[in-house]
């Protein structure tokens, strides 16, 4: 009896090591944006093995599954990928591991009850069942890994996330009820039907993941269309302003002869001061038709000129120091998304400042990163934390910092927000592509 107990404990410990290996390998091979030192992962693996083993030894399958879900979700979120969508991936995978281990029990009961084998329900029976469960877990791991690599879900709203979690949770509870029934009702046909039902539930959950991946793609498509509309609006405003300036310049050119004659008469009459002031006024009028040149990126130049002109209407001093930083590796729509929304937010905050409102846009190369900073004056009424700040224009509402973050993530960039008493600062860090 003691010998059999030792065998079962050893096999249980080895299966827990296998489960931990599969869990960490699954999280490591999916997309990740967090990298810790090796000793941190080593300690976390040891903790994972010990906690899972402590539950497995006492043969608490439901508690083990719950423990797996909690551990994998938390460790995955803090060690591999901080995106909330991946917490659902880790939870679903953990749930699948638990179900795979559960489903082995009724299958073995049916097979060995029919075969009437002499070692039915002894130590070797239990060991064989544990090993078989790990084989199924390994197969499921490969299937899950290939599936989630191809069917990556990026964007769901809160209601969709709730529905995405609810059905797997309901399926898990349903499977637990059916497996409990097999402990009391041992009719082979009924047990076989329950196993088939569990398999169908697993396929249903896999289909659910595919369905939500399609919904996620539709959400991304709608979002991208909205961004293209924003870019089109900016370009329309730009060319509309150019047309207005062209019409105004034609009128100025038409009157230029009269202006020159007036200046000539002032100088002939030795009214040098008035003549100089007259020429300065003409120069200022002509300069109003110029398009300032901030960067070699034509789209960014359009965005900055548009926002500078908007800021001037509120008396905001906007200065740009881009230091020949090239953003040619970025898509034009992403450049528009990032700078248009951040400058809109800065203008929305600075326009409420009564004394000397300002905005400073800077860009520099720092080691292997492009660092972009947008600093603006603000007052106490500006939204604290500013995570909810959106564009000041109604037609751009909802396209704020959330879409800026999405655009940055395409280039493995990230954003940091700083708030002081009378100043707001957004820093962007984008790795330079070689």
Which features would summarize this protein structure in a list?
single chain; 2 domains; five-stranded mixed beta sheet; Heat Shock Protein 90; 434 residues; elongated; alpha+beta
Walkthrough of the structure:
InterPro entries: HATPase_C_sf (IPR036890), NatK-like_C (IPR032834). The chain crosses the membrane at residues 6-27, 39-58, 64-80, 87-112, 124-144, 164-186, 192-212. Residues 331-431 form the Sensor histidine kinase NatK-like C-terminal domain. With 434 residues, the protein is an alpha+beta fold. It folds into two domains: 1-186, no CATH class; 298-382 and 394-431, Histidine kinase-like ATPase, C-terminal domain (Heat Shock Protein 90), CATH 3.30.565.10. It has helices at residues 2-29, 38-56, 61-79, 84-115, 123-150, 158-184, 188-268, 272-287, 298-313, 332-350, 401-409, and strands at residues 317-321, 358-366, 369-377, 414-419, 423-431. The protein has a five-stranded mixed beta sheet with strand order 1-2-3-5-4. Helix 1 (2-29) packs across helix 2 and helix 9 packs parallel to helix 10. The longest helix has 81 residues, at 188-268. It is elongated and about 120 Å long. The model is unreliable at 382-399 (pLDDT under 50).
């Amino acid at each position: 009896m003691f010998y059999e107990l030792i065998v079962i404990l050893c096999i249980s410990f080895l299966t827990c090591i296998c489960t931990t290996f599969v869990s960490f390998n699954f999280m490591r091979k999916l997309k990740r944006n967090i990298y810790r030192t090796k000793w941190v992962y080593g300690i976390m693996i040891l903790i994972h093995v010990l906690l899972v083993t402590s539950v497995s030894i006492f043969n608490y399958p439901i508690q083990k599954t719950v423990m797996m879900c909690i551990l994998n979700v938390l460790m995955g979120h803090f060690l591999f990928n901080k995106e909330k969508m991946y917490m659902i991936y880790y939870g679903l995978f953990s749930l699948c591991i638990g179900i795979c281990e559960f489903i082995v029990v009724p299958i073995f009961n049916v097979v060995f009850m029919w075969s009437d084998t002499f070692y039915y329900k002894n130590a070797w029976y239990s060991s064989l069942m544990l090993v078989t469960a790990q084989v199924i877990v390994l197969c499921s791991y490969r299937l899950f890994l290939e599936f989630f690599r191809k069917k990556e879900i990026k964007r769901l709203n809160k209601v969709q996330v709730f529905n995405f979690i609810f059905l797997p949770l309901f399926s898990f509870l349903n499977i637990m009820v059916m497996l409990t029934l097999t402990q009391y009702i041992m009719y082979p046909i009924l047990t076989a039907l329950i196993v088939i039902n569990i398999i169908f539930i697993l396929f249903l959950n896999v289909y659910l993941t595919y369905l939500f991946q399609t919904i996620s793609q539709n959400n991304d498509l709608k979002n991208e269309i909205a961004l293209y509309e924003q870019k089109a609006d900016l370009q329309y405003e730009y060319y509309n302003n150019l047309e207005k300036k062209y019409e105004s310049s034609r009128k100025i050119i038409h009157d230029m002869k009269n202006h020159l004659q007036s200046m000539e008469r002032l100088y002939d009459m030795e009214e040098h001061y008035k003549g100089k002031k007259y020429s300065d006024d003409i120069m200022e009028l002509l300069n109003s038709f110029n398009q300032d040149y901030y960067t070699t990126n034509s789209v960014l130049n359009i965005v900055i000129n548009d926002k500078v002109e908007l800021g001037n209407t509120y008396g905001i001093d906007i200065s740009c120091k881009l230091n020949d930083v090239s953003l040619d590796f970025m898509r034009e729509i992403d450049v528009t998304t990032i700078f248009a929304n951040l400058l809109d937010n800065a203008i929305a905050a600075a326009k409420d400042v009564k004394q000397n409102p300002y905005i400073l846009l800077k860009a520099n190369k720092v080691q292997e990163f492009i660092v972009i900073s947008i600093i603006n004056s603000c007052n106490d009424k500006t939204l604290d934390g500013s995570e909810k700040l959106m564009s000041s224009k109604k037609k751009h509402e909802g396209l704020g910092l959330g879409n800026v973050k999405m655009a940055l993530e395409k280039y493995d960039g990230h954003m940091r927000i700083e708030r002081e008493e009378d100043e707001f600062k957004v820093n962007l860090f984008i790795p330079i592509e070689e």
